[in-house]
């Protein structure tokens, strides 16, 4: 990652101009004037590979308060962690407590609108690059192929999260802001079709090796890792197994024995990892989750239901949870990101990581009744965590699937809504124990709560958008 970081001083001015082109407004779905006054002429932005790469860098940037990947403010992490009852909230901010208490979640929740607009801002940037590199005589065919694959991957990543948060959403694949601003919702099936189309094309275009230093710009195995996750969510077990298996056996990644190094720059567990471009503070996950003193009550304490899942001797509890003593009691909080301020070595933002591939392969194998392989993969993750092998009955599909989900919970907690999505996507799968399903573990949860409401702000701007059932 050091080589990429050395480019920052050269690339930042251009990136900021690209951001201005793309982000004149993020209040509407897409409302970008054709020629905003601060725009850099498009002929200059995409005049050669160097200026084009500057635009690409803007897509990957994580600059709090700015443009780039729509996760820099930490909203996605902490609202889905609340929804999955991984953490509770002591913040006193009403919009956040709504995610923990499903009966109070409303379409006017400001965090929901923020998540929606951030994703579409990123998607617009991606579409802008795709439009301007296509048939661009200033760029080589191999360069166009590479960047096209990268942008298709990023767009698929955004839409995957959107379809799991909201269900069917408008499919924006161009920069025609007048049309985009009035697009109706597509079906969830259509969104998934677009995701698979983008990823399958990206797999054909992306190289085996990372195209630059670090793991910021995706390679073939980055796209395959997301394909594995997508197919798992779709119940395409063999495809999920095959994609995860390819990443595990061919990708060149490995599980780090030092859990405190997993989220740091240069981690070989990182399948997709981007630097945090902020000179004054670290990740927003750390700034949201870590208390600012050793005696204060954490704003987002770990729930007892999650804490009780950690077995005695689990190294993940020691490395990835912190605690303050409050009122004579240990109050735990998430501590995967430990960077209130920039760290050395740097803490990067982990978007896809290798451990998940073992868990995807394990779940897919169990669904395919290959229980021995599933147990082997579960135990790979448990061994790294300092634990003995699973005690799940190796002849029971339900027991093995429950063991996978338990391991996903303690391995992937507070990472991009993993627990929340797991509960929602398996809520009707009778192969899991009923006492571990969403209705049993999330007080007040009803099937319609699996999706967030469409933001009222967006419905007011675009009256073609329909509301999700159960919300008013």
UniProtKB/TrEMBL annotation:
One of its GO terms (cellular component) is cell outer membrane. Residues 341-471 form the RagB/SusD domain. The keyword Membrane applies. The keyword Signal applies. InterPro entries: SusD-like_N, SusD_RagB_dom, TPR-like_helical_dom_sf. It is found in: Cell outer membrane. Keywords: Cell outer membrane, Membrane, Signal. Residues 95-232 form the SusD-like N-terminal domain. SUPFAM superfamilies: TPR-like. Pfam families: SusD-like_3, SusD_RagB. Belongs to the SusD family. This is RagB/SusD family nutrient uptake outer membrane protein. It comes from Arachidicoccus soli.
């Amino acid at each position: 990652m050091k080589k990429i970081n050395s480019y920052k001083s050269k690339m930042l001015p251009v990136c900021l101009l690209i951001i201005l082109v793309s982000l004149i407004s993020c209040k509407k779905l897409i409302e970008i004037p054709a020629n905003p006054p601060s725009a850099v002429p498009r002929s200059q932005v995409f005049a050669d590979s160097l200026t084009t790469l500057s635009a690409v860098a803007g897509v990957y940037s994580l600059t709090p308060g700015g443009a780039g990947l729509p996760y820099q403010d930490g909203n996605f992490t902490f609202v889905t962690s609340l929804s999955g009852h991984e953490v509770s909230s002591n913040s006193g901010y009403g919009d956040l407590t709504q995610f923990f208490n499903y009966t109070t979640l409303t379409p006017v929740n400001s965090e929901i609108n923020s998540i929606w607009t951030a994703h579409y801002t990123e998607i617009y940037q991606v579409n802008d690059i795709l439009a301007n590199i296509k048939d661009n005589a200033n760029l080589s065919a191999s360069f166009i192929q590479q960047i096209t694959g990268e942008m298709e991957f990023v767009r698929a990543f955004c839409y995957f999260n959107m379809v799991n948060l909201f269900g069917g959403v408008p499919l924006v694949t161009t920069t025609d802001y007048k049309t985009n601003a009035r697009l109706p919702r597509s079906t969830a099936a259509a969104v998934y079709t677009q995701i698979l189309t983008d990823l399958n094309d990206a797999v054909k275009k992306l190289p085996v090796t990372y195209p630059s230093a670090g793991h910021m710009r995706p390679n073939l195995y980055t796209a395959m890792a997301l394909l594995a996750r997508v197919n798992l969510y779709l119940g395409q077990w063999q495809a999920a197994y095959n994609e995860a298996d390819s990443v595990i056996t061919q990708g060149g990644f490995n599980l780090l024995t030092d859990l405190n190094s997993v989220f740091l720059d240069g981690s070989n567990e990182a399948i997709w990892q981007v630097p945090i471009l902020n000179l004054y503070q670290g990740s927003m996950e750390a700034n949201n989750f870590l208390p600012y003193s050793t005696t204060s009550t954490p704003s987002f304490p770990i729930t007892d239901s999650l804490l009780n899942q950690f077995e005695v001797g689990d190294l993940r509890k020691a490395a990835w949870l912190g605690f303050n003593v409050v009122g004579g009691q240990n109050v735990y909080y998430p501590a995967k990101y430990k960077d209130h301020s920039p760290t050395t070595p740097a803490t990067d933002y982990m978007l896809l990581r290798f451990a998940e591939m073992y868990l995807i392969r394990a779940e897919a194998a169990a669904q395919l009744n290959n229980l021995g392989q599933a147990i082997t993969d579960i135990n790979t993750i448990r061994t790294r965590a300092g634990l003995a092998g699973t005690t799940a009955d190796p002849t029971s599909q339900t027991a093995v699937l429950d063991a996978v989900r338990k391991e996903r919970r303690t391995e992937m907690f507070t990472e991009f809504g993993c627990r929340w999505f797991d509960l929602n996507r398996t809520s009707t799968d009778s192969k899991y124990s009923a006492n571990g399903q969403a209705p049993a573990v999330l007080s007040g949860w009803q099937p319609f709560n699996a999706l967030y409401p469409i933001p009222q702000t967006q419905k007011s701007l675009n009256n073609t958008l329909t509301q999700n059932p159960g919300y008013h």
